[in-house]
Design a protein that fits this description.
Blueprint lengths: L1 H16 L7 H6 L4 E2 L5 E4 L2 E4 L28 E3 L4 E3 L6 H14 L5 E8 L6 E7 L2 E8 L2 E5 L1
Antiparallel strand pairs: 1-2, 2-3, 4-5, 6-7, 7-8, 8-9
Length: 153
């Protein structure tokens, strides 16, 4: 009986002293390992790094410029509605050729609330442009060649 008690005691001691296999951030932190102050936090143990799982949804930041007008234009960022083009633009950024390229691009994809002409890049040939559009942080590029739509991506 004493032998059985001794064997059980030794087994209990071995089990208690056996190193715990760490498989995630919570176990790593609970074991007292160092936690890196990053986002998300990280914990390092046994040569491995475990990253904290953030369970709450991350809310994307509001766009710079704040409030939008009735057309979806970010007025505080300098954008205003241009009825001829059918999109939000910064009027001082576009010359006549760029305005025409923007109008052609918008006509091709269709007027939509919040559609903003972010940039009109002039290419190396006459009537060649890349019009960069944005609609609520969804970007589209329209390439024009000889004033006609060549591709949309």
């Amino acid at each position: 009986m004493k032998k059985i008690l001794i064997i059980l005691s030794v087994l209990a001691l071995l089990i208690a002293c056996a190193p715990m296999k760490i498989t995630n951030f919570k176990e790593c932190a609970a074991a007292g390992n160092p936690i890196m102050e990053s986002y998300p936090r990280q914990c390092r143990a046994d040569g491995k790094t475990f990253v904290e799982v953030i369970e709450e949804p991350v809310v994307p930041p509001k766009p710079i410029g704040g409030q939008r007008d009735e057309h979806g234009c970010l007025g505080p960022a300098g954008y205003s509605w241009d009825a001829e083009i059918g999109a939000c633009i910064r009027t001082w950024e576009l010359n006549e050729n760029q305005r025409q390229a923007a109008k052609t691009a918008v006509a091709h994809i269709g007027q939509q609330e919040g559609l903003t002409v972010v940039d009109v890049l002039v290419a190396r040939c006459l009537g060649c442009f890349t019009v960069e559009l944005d609609r609520y942080q969804e970007q589209t590029k329209v390439e024009l060649e000889d004033w006609k739509v060549k591709s949309v991506y």
